[in-house]
Design brief:
The complex is a heterodimer. Chain A has helices at about 85-90, 110-120, 165-180; strands at about 15-20, 25-30, 30-40, 55-60, 65-70, 70-75, 95-100, 105-110, 135-140, 145-150, 155-160. The N and C termini of chain A lie far apart (about 50 Å). By secondary structure, chain A is α+β, with helices and mostly antiparallel strands. In chain A, strands 1-2-8-11-10-9 form a six-stranded antiparallel β-sheet, with helices on one face. Chain A has three helices and eleven strands; from the N terminus they run ββββββαββαβββα. In chain A, about 15% of the residues lie in helices and about 35% in strands. Chain B has a single domain, classed as Folate-binding superfamily (Folate-binding fold, 2-Layer Sandwich), CATH 3.30.2270.10. In chain B, the strands form two sheets. Chain B has a four-stranded antiparallel β-sheet. The chains are: A alpha+beta, B alpha+beta. The interface of A and B includes residues 68, 124, 129 and 144 of A. Chain B: GO terms for molecular function: sarcosine oxidase activity. Chain B: One of its GO terms (biological process) is tetrahydrofolate metabolic process. Chain B: Pfam families: SoxD. Chain B: It comes from Paracoccus limosus.
Chain lengths: ~180, ~90
């Protein structure tokens, strides 16, 4: 029998993590993702959270959601990468697509001031309009990524899984340039 | 250049792709007696104004919405932006 070993998006057996100055960067290999679109006139499903409006991110118990377009959201399930999310969420009036395997998630933690400074270097988004509870899709090194401000001290970047190494390189580079040598 | 997205605020124009004249939303009736002439004009005859122009922009690296951006082609000043689905819906 062939022995198959699961690996993370960056190729390691364990998720990568780095600490650079005041910032810590971490690959989250366990995040389950599914996209949700409401068909015309369909009510929002009971997920235990209110689906956020444009540019918003909301957290519930065991899941979170962010707005990706009119009537469309991405649902996040921490630790849910192994679940069959599309089957769990399927319901009348909903279009649900499994997204876990298409994306890779990077979590960045650090003091709010350092995090905002990093955000301003990473993407051309007005940081004053990007407080906790914000999420947006934007351009990043000619790639499309989702950027989520989960908390004052927590930022997440979700991008194409096949570009995980490129995204990680760009994040590490930006953090290193920002680092003040002790 | 920044485009004032009606939902998301000021966004980098690099996130958008440009389609052209917003008159493309006004597709002629294919059942009209002079449909062939109308489609010829719709497809091939566009105004090319030096000044205020309403045009379609697609927020490709964003929420994938179509916007109608009003732009001055002489100064590149952006005078406003609205969701194409709203503009089209209001007309229907």
């Amino acid at each position: 029998m062939t022995e198959l070993k699961p690996i993370c998006a960056l190729g390691g057996a364990e998720p990568a993590s780095r600490r650079i100055g005041a910032l810590s960067l971490r690959e989250d290999a366990g995040l389950g993702l599914a996209s949700l679109a409401l068909r015309a006139g369909a009510p929002a499903p009971a997920l235990g959270l209110v689906l956020p409006g444009p540019g918003g991110w909301a957290e519930g118990a065991g899941l979170a959601a962010f707005w990706t377009g009119a009537g469309q959201w991405m649902l996040e399930f921490p630790g849910g990468a192994g679940r069959d999310l599309a089957a769990e969420l399927a319901g009348p009036g909903l279009s649900v697509t499994e997204q876990t395997d298409g994306f890779t998630a990077f979590e960045i933690q650090g003091p709010a001031a350092e995090l905002v400074a990093l955000l301003e270097k990473l993407v051309n988004v007005d940081a004053r309009r990007f407080g906790p509870g914000s999420a947006t899709r934007t351009g990043f090194h000619h790639m499309s990524v989702f950027v989520i401000r989960r908390a004052p001290d927590r930022l997440a970047v979700l991008g194409m899984r096949s570009a995980a190494g490129t995204i990680w390189h760009a994040l590490v580079e930006a953090a290193e340039r920002q680092e003040v040598p002790a | 250049m920044l485009i004032p997205h009606p939902l998301l605020g000021l966004r980098d124009a690099e996130e958008f792709t440009y389609l052209g004249d917003a008159s493309l939303l006004d597709r002629p009736d294919p059942h009209a007696p002079d449909a062939a002439q109308q489609f010829y004009e719709y497809q091939h005859l566009r105004d090319n104004p030096a000044g205020i122009h309403r045009e379609l922009w697609f927020h490709e690296q964003g929420d994938r919405s179509w916007l109608i951006v009003t732009r001055n082609t002489l100064t590149h000043e952006i005078l406003g932006a609205e969701l194409a689905r709203d503009a089209k819906g209001a007309k229907a």
